[in-house]
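Kindly inspect both lines:
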Amino acid sequence: MRTKLILTSVLLASCSDFSMPSMPSGTLLAPYKMDIRQGNYITPEMREKLKLGMQKSQVHYVLGTPMINDAFHGNRWDYVYRLEHHGEVVEKQRLTLHFDGDNLVKIDDGKTVETAPVIEKQATEPTASKPAVKVEPEADVLKSVQGWATAWSAKNARDYLAAYTAEFKPGGMSREAWEAQRLDRISKPKAIEVALSDINVSMEDDNHATVSFTQDYRSDNYRDQVEKTLQLVNQSGRWLIAGEQAGKAVKTKAKAQADDLAKADARPVSANQQAVQDAIKHWADAWSARDTGKYLDSYGATFKPKEIDKAAWETQRKERIGKAHSIAVKVSELKIKLHDDSHASATFMQDFRSDSHKDRTRKTLLLEKTGDAWLIVAEQAMK
């Protein structure tokens, strides 16, 4: 026991030789404070994609779930963000969105406010100082038809089907079979675009209207343009579709040009025209097959890409072609013009589709004959 006491005394004496580093008088050790980020950070790119008239599902896809979504005010979404650095707020951001039903009608980012045009409805008790503004029924009918087309384009089957009355009877099938068919056709394509033009609204009375228009439908696997007529009825303040008739397919300007080119194709072509056509097909096939070697060999030594040198362009093309899992390039409406025996231009519609991108572009290629091969020496694209 005595030995233990002696050892303890020695150890305590040894510890007394250690001391804390000297610090200036009044200095305290401050705890480390981490950077704290809270809420939804909206990048300029995300803000640019936000447009008035978008549906809630589209806004959610672009910006994500709002930081504040008041259950009592479902038509207002608040995206709030703050960054604290060493305990101090160094960045704040707030974006408030207002909806009318399912459509975005107001964007307030604290600096600017964007508001969709609103049709004023007649007041219940108009005053003498402010005369009531009468709403034209055609405007409400048109808004309903455009909402139907928007829901279809957004692949929103619920809102699309809600645009029809409960009494709507499709031709040649039961209502249940028709709804199942529409759900299938809306859900299958990756993308749908429905555009209406030449719209004509005819009011039969206060509760019945007929709307005729040209409907341009395009998806990733089908496209058509037809004349369509809808009969609408006013039910509880909503204009709903009670009848629908699709007329003949419309011969568009593009289709007319394609027909003219088809007639031209029926005429004999020269050997050089055929060689240019084969060269363009070889270029498109190599691109579709993701064969970068054959694709780049389709371009001549004098080809100069815009805003980038050729070596960087070739690296870019290799990267983009190699990154895609699948590519399909279709050339249509091809028109070839021979300037002389060694120079030609080709104009056509290019439909490009990969697993991550698709577009339709009018393109012009300038080709030059080098040896026995026609090679691309210039390229111009126009949306």
